[in-house]
Design a protein that fits this description.
The complex is a heterodimer. Chain A is mainly alpha-helical. Chain A has one domain. Chain A contains 5 helices and 2 strands; from the N terminus they run ααααββα. Chain A is elongated and about 60 Å long. Chain B is mostly helical. Chain B has a domain of 250 residues. Chain B is built from 32 helices and 4 strands. In chain B, the strands form 2 sheets. Chain B has a two-stranded antiparallel ribbon with strand order 1-4. In chain B, strands 2-3 form a two-stranded antiparallel ribbon. Classes of the chains: A mainly alpha, B mainly alpha. The interface between A and B is large, with 51 and 42 residues.
Chain lengths: 139, 766
């Protein structure tokens, strides 16, 4: 598709969408959002980019093969689930650390749950773009 | 026979050294594991002879009541000693027979696997464990029968044995589960003690039928007998092992094991007696027909199995003792004879009885072993076979229900056995020498030692029958009948009816041997007139299954997406609709729901979108209209406080529209899709699905809403998972395993779609 408006707009839009997708991913545990939604937003961003600039450009921007991204995401999610075994818990039990927690202060929460959600995010981005880019390549 | 698998071994043996043979040097090591096991089992002899039993237990799946527990009593010890003892001799023999074979290592693994499975089967003290080992013998025998995998015949035979005994195994599993339910435990010890309860149970008949199906397929009773002769495609040592002491005796073991639980009823007695007698007589007639020595022996194995089944049907002590004695007799002479035929084959290059004769001068040791084994088979004194046969007649006459029937079946089968013994062990060795493919010469020591030992045991036990009477037969009979029994074996029983029957057997048998060429001609002519052999019936059955599968694949999976969707939605509407109607869960709302104007507006938007999608004349319109439906649903989610769902719905909707738009560009024109008639049908189906979903939703909403799960997540979300967004907490924490499964599906689906698209792209290239 060759449209000047789309070309110019996507540069801004895609960056915003990617930023927003990460924001949605990170806030997901307490506010509406999460890895699935974040992943969808990112996937739509890249799909838009592919429409405006072609799939070759989109693949370059993505840097990695989308299928590989989704498989890596699956691996990260599995790793997050397996890590519970290190603490002696059942599979996929969330592990939490509150970095710098002092009395009354919660500190910075770090968890395997977030790692799992990042895995979901990557799976969704990768899977959606695997199909979308393959379809675009066709035409 | 295709000799591909065996040829290397023979050629190397024929050339007489100079070649490095892979199995030759240290192949005999294969005999060590069974030897060790045999010694270990012998250690249990004193306990078992004293009427005791050894029990070893290990909790395996305690939650299901499945233990890896083993029971060594008289019955299992008899089998275990036969399996490991004959295993030693067969392993020793194989190391010479298959010396230099490229896949000797593979063969060793299969053989040991099979032996372990067989031992596990006879020693298991839990019916589920028993079943698992039962299936393992099926798998291992598949590998052994199909060892010569380059031959189509071997592959077919292996598959046939696998399918038939595997199907029997499934029936057995069902039977054992029912049995466990009826007895209240899967432990064999408990089941054996609750025989009366099981026999009185309403599930007794189904249990009996299913267990017998398992036993009869494994032990090749007519009409499931045909896989056994076909299994002769295996290398000869395998045949010797599978068909003497192991595989086919598994069914016999099962019958003996189940005797105290399922036995004693009319249905047990009659089924076993009739099937056993018919199998014994039919198989001995078929054995006479064969000119291939190995095939003739295979049919006599079927005959032996029939005889054993027939006697295990009985309750009388002497009948059961006859079964166990004959079991030992048969294992010894049958293993010996198979190995001898392996020797003949190895030395001369043929197994066709018509092309053999006068081998005694070239192969004196093999001839001696053959004579001893055959005399035991024919039941001549002073061999153990004679005692076995006398005992059979005594047992047959002691059977309360039908002594005449059983005795005459036994006489006919035994007489024909005398004739077959003559054909197998006399014809090749005596008479005029004939020219064979290879000039005959005696086989190396490692190949004659096993048959000589086996045949020698038949003579030793015949002369000193108390050796096995006290150690094996009496404890085994005690175990089978579930009460202490005394069994004495002796060569001389005095002048009585069994002896008379023995004499009659010899007269009939020798006559049959004298006229066997004539008999064989007539049998072949007669069987030519049969419409179909069991083997052919099997082929028809398999072809039928295949064409049925092909037909239903053509009908259900014709490759048209439209039909797939139609079938899926029609099944959905039918199944859910029927369930709704049958359970009476359908609710008609009392009045109009209390909705705000915005709700009505969104509902109208959704409805308009749906109608638009249905009547759209271009694909783009249809897609956009569907998008409107999706957005409307997302709006509903927002209005009713489900922002996560709404966002997801909206995003998925956008992505779907984008993807479909991409696909669309490649599709043919919209109008060349369905005909008017099909469109009408589609409309009907659409209305039906819509109605069913609406009715389901109304029924769900009408039921009181159970808030317990919601309440749990509401209270547990923050303290346990440190998150306020319950939906996300459920996804990534409480139900993380489910989510993991879902994203795995997403990855697989994406890869599948990618492969499909890549495939079509490749196909498009010139």
């Amino acid at each position: 598709m060759n449209s000047l408006i789309l070309n110019a707009a996507t540069r801004l839009l895609v960056a915003l969408m990617l930023l927003f997708s990460v924001y949605m991913l990170l806030r997901g545990h307490n506010e509406p959002g999460g890895g699935f939604i974040g992943g969808l937003i990112a996937a739509i961003g890249f799909a838009l980019y592919a429409m405006a600039h072609g799939t070759a450009a989109a693949r370059r921007a993505l840097r990695f093969d989308p299928a590989a991204i989704s498989v890596v995401g699956l691996g990260i999610a599995l790793l997050a689930g397996l890590s519970a075994a290190l603490a002696g818990d059942a599979l996929f039990t969330g592990q939490w650390w509150f970095a710098g927690a002092i009395d009354g202060e919660k500190g910075l929460p770090i968890s395997t749950v977030l790692l799992f959600d990042i895995g979901v995010y990557l799976v969704v981005v990768g899977a959606a773009l695997t199909i979308a880019l393959a379809l675009e390549d066709e035409t | 026979m295709n000799d591909h698998g065996l040829a290397p071994g023979r050629e190397i043996a024929g050339r007489g050294g100079g070649t490095i043979s892979r199995g030759g040097g240290f192949g005999w090591l294969l005999a060590i594991p069974p030897a060790g096991l045999a010694v270990a089992f012998s250690a249990a002899l004193p306990t078992v002879m004293g009427g005791g039993a050894v029990r070893l237990a290990y909790d395996w799946v305690p939650s299901l009541g499945v233990g890896l527990s083993f029971l060594i009593d008289g019955l299992s010890l008899t089998f275990a000693l036969l399996i490991s003892g004959i295993g030693v001799l067969v392993a020793l023999y194989s190391s010479a027979y298959l010396a230099g074979h490229n896949h000797y290592a593979r063969f060793s693994v299969y053989l040991l696997l099979f032996m372990v499975a067989m031992l596990g089967l006879v020693l298991a003290d839990n019916v589920i464990t028993l079943f698992i080992f039962w299936e393992l013998t099926t798998v291992a025998s598949y590998l052994l029968i199909g060892f010569d995998h380059a031959s189509a015949k071997a592959r077919r035979s292996a598959l046939q044995a696998l399918l038939l005994t595997g199907a029997g195994g499934l029936a057995l599993l069902a039977g054992l589960i029912l049995l466990g339910a009826a007895a209240g435990s899967f432990d064999l010890s408990t089941i054996l003690a609750s025989g009366d309860a099981v026999r009185a149970h309403q599930l007794y008949l189904p249990i009996l039928i299913l267990v017998l199906l398992g036993a009869f397929t494994k032990s090749a009773q007519v009409p499931f007998h045909f896989w056994l002769p076909n299994a002769m495609a295996a290398p000869t040592p395998v045949s010797a092992y599978l068909h003497s002491a192991t595989m086919v005796k598994a069914g016999i073991y099962l019958l003996a094991r189940m005797h105290p639980v399922l036995g004693g009823t009319d249905s047990w007695i009659w089924t076993l007696t009739i099937f056993g007698a018919f199998t014994a007589v039919a198989a001995s007639v078929l054995a006479l027909r064969q000119t291939d020595l190995k095939l003739a022996l295979a049919y006599t194995t079927v005959m032996a199995l029939g005889t054993l089944t027939m006697f295990l049907g009985a309750e009388a002590t002497v009948a059961v003792a006859a079964a166990i004695t004959f079991l030992i007799v048969h294992s010894l002479y049958k293993a010996a004879l198979f190995l001898i035929i392996g020797n003949i084959d190895h030395a001369t290059g043929t197994r066709d009885v018509a092309r053999l004769g006068g081998l005694v001068r070239a192969m004196p040791v093999t001839a001696l072993a053959a004579a001893a084994a055959a005399l035991s088979m024919a039941g001549f004194p002073p061999f153990l076979g004679f005692i076995g046969k006398e005992l059979k007649y005594e047992g047959a006459l002691a059977i309360a229900s039908e002594p005449l029937f059983v005795a005459s079946a036994a006489v006919v089968a035994n007489a024909l056995m005398v004739a077959v013994a003559g054909i197998v062990a006399l014809r090749p060795f005596y008479g005029t020498p004939s020219t064979t493919p290879k000039p005959p010469r005696e086989v190396p020591m490692r190949m004659w030692i096993s048959p000589v030992l086996l045949a020698g045991l038949g003579l030793t036990f015949g002369l000193a029958p108390s050796l096995i009477a006290d150690a094996l037969v009496q404890p085994a009979v005690t175990a089978i009948l579930g009460r202490p029994e005394t069994v004495k074996l002796a060569l001389w029983h005095g002048f009585n009816l069994p002896l008379l029957l023995s004499v009659l057997t010899f007269v009939l048998g020798l006559t049959a041997y004298a006229v066997h060429p004539w008999l064989r001609r007539h049998l072949i002519a007669a069987s030519g007139r049969l419409p179909m052999t069991a083997d052919q019936v099997w082929d028809r059955l398999l072809d039928g299954v295949k064409s049925l599968a092909a037909m239903q694949t053509r009908t259900l999976q014709g490759g048209r997406l439209h039909r797939y969707l139609f079938v899926v939605f029609a099944s959905f509407a039918l199944a859910v609709g029927t369930a709704l109607f049958a359970t009476g869960a359908m609710r008609v709302p009392a009045g109009w729901p209390d909705l705000l104007l915005k709700h009505w507006a969104v509902t109208a938007l959704i409805a308009a979108g749906a109608v638009m999608a249905a009547v759209a004349s271009t694909r783009l319109t249809a897609i956009c209209a569907l998008g409107v439906v999706g957005v409307g649903v997302a709006l509903l989610f927002v209005m009713f406080g489900a922002p996560d769902l709404a966002v997801t719905q909206l995003l998925v909707e956008i992505l779907v529209v984008v993807l479909v738009a991409m696909v669309m560009l490649r599709l043919p024109g919209f109008e060349q899709g369905s005909t008017r008639r099909i469109r009408k049908l589609d409309a009907l189906l659409g209305i039906a699905v819509g109605a069913v979903v609406t009715a389901t939703l109304l029924a769900v909403v009408a039921a009181p809403f159970d808030r317990s799960i919601t309440a749990y997540f509401e209270t547990a979300s923050v303290p346990e998972a440190f998150g306020r967004n319950i939906v996300n907490v459920i996804l990534v924490d409480f139900r993380a395993l489910d989510t993991f499964g879902e994203i795995a599906v997403v990855v697989v689906a994406a890869l599948g779609a990618y492969a499909l698209l890549a495939g079509t792209r490749r196909g498009k290239r010139p």
